[in-house]
Amino acid sequence: MINILTEKIKKLEAPIVVGLDPTMKFVPEQIKKQAFAEYGETMQGAAEAIWQYNKGIVDAVCDLIPAVKPQIAMYEQFGVEGMTAFQKTVAYCKEKGLVVIGDIKRGDIGSTSDAYAVGHLGQAQVGDTMCRGFDLDFATVNPYLGSDGVKPFIEVCKKEKKGLFILVKTSNPSSGEFQDRLVLPEGSADASAARPLYEIVGEKVAEWAAEHMGETYSYIGAVVGATYPEMAKILRKIMPKSYILVPGYGAQGGKGKDLKPFFNEDGLGAIVNSSRGIIAAYQQEAYAKYGAEGYADAARAAVLAMKEDIRTGIF
What we know:
This protein is an alpha/beta fold and 315 residues long. Helix content is 45%, strand content 17%. The chain has an eight-stranded parallel β-barrel with strand order 1-2-3-6-7-10-11-12, surrounded by seven helices. Strands 4-5 form a two-stranded antiparallel sheet. Helix 10 links the parallel strand 10 and strand 11 (242-246). Helix 2 crosses helix 3 (43-61) and helix 6 (110-121) packs parallel to helix 7 (147-160). The mean pLDDT is 95.
């Protein structure tokens, strides 16, 4: 799957992933009105509204981008009906030829981690039949429980030829509370030898990546926030064969000029996420002319602007 993602990025010249992270405040009134008329102000009504909203955005941008990244929590908040909307969104995006990165941030141990991996990326055995759950192409994984929380995902990915993006340095402001903590090598008392925890995690990702290569890049990637370009310079060297999923662009403050350290010299090696900056573009002053009725057209215009901003920043 990493080969497919890389080829799509090259073909479209767009290292962009659109985060499908719907909240009800983003969904235009005309869509909510129609969904509530059919299902009431219920979980089913909310799920129908976000599904129709997603569908409109995907239809508007699918020819411009290689991938989407639905954030599962935005669907889980609407219970079982929300998860049905998540599944329908994933299936529809794949029908449109998009690579789907499930932002699930799972991380557990043993049989629990294996079950997460099977449910999101693999196949579950039901009697004599193998059945797919959400059938994501990639998933985000939290490594901070250690290797036994990640290896079940890697094994499923090997079998299914799918991929992971492992959290290394996240974009949120408080990430440094743990990820930036200085760690001494085992047995050392030399304070000058201490290194940030995120570098040590990056080295582990590089180790896993080297063992599970695609044609040029590994299917084991990393998450590094756009808000930390100086750290990205170091991590890019530590993980040369890992694709970096870059959150934090746009609404969180990341700009195209900040992104060059995330990419390799071949202009590849990273894919940049924007969520509300695209899916709620019609609510921004720059795209207000489209109005709520034209929310999908506003999303398309925002993708084109992002593509140009990244091109200018990288090259």
